[in-house]
Structure formats: structure tokens, C-alpha cells
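Mods, move this if it's the wrong board.
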Amino acid sequence: MNEAQQTGALEAMLFAHAEPVETERLADALRLSAQDTEELLHDLQQRYDEQESGLTILHFEPDRWQMTTRPYYGEVVKRVLDTRRNAPLSPAALEVLAVIAYNQPVSRSFIEQVRGVDSSSTVTKLLEKGLIEEAGRLDLPGRPVAFQTTDTFLRVFGLGGLKDLPPLHDEVAEDAAAGDVQEAPMADGEERAEQLEWK
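Not the wrong board. C-alpha cells:
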């Protein structure tokens, strides 16, 4: 296969696979080295960006890739899909999601301690939507179940990894002290949640 055909094959595999797939797995299928495959992936990612395509290639650390619709077009995509799973998140759900995203893995009691209210039903709804998942049990009295965000969470909010989360108050304050920023966002759970926009 020439380079154009290799890129076409890559697009076909990413489209058909639907979920994040490892570079090595794609490379094996193409009979290419991981480095050559990664170069093709970056080229494809750049081409989609330059064309303002409705599709985009997301890179999940350390080495997984996924073809998905661009968040900008999320509203029109939802019009032709069953929107029950993608219904807008409530302020409470965004708040719980923010607590988990910035502190994971965390127990349900930790979430409720931060929020000051019972969060059982909200956690259940986020599990149903696939935005969070169980992450084993914490080494604490009672061995409580821990929760963490999922790849679906990253995809929905257009993040390549947790490092792409908006900075917290303390981090921005440090940058401001160094003269890098002019003002810092507020830091309570609800305000952190507002930094995450449901796509």
C-alpha cells in the first residue's frame, strides 16, 4: 500500500473500531512500525483540523487513538441520535463529575463531604451515562468503592487526558503570582464544575 492507502486503511480501522485503540494494534494491522503509524495518525489528525472536518482524531495517553465527531458539532449530532444518554447534565451532576475528575479515585463519602449533600443518585446517573466507573476499593476503613472518570468523559468534554482539565484556583494563582495570568477562577466544587462544558 502507498501512503494514501495506508491513511485510508487507518481511517477505516478507526471508524470501524469506534473505541480507543492502541498504536501498536493499528501498526500490526498495517504491517508498519509504531513510529510510522503514529506519524500517519498525527498527519490525519492535522488534516482533519485544517479542513475543519466534522471528525477529529483524539489521542488518549499513553498511546490510544479514536476517531470521533468534533465537539463543535455535538448539538446537531444529538438531533439525529437517541439523546437519553446524552441529555444535558444537571448542575449537581457537573459538580459531582468535577469532584471526581480533579480528585480521582474518590469514594462516595468523599464526594458527599465536599458537596455537603447526599450524592448517591447523581453518582448512579453518571455511572449509567458511562462518564465515571468503579476503580476498585480504597485502602480505608470499610474498603469503600472508588470512582474515576472514563474515556467517555474525556471524549465528551474534548480532552486528550486529565492533564487537559482546566486549572484549579491554586494552580492559576501560582501562575498569576509569576505574572503569567491576570485573574484566577474561583475554586469551590460548583465553580469547578462550570469549567466543564457538556459537549
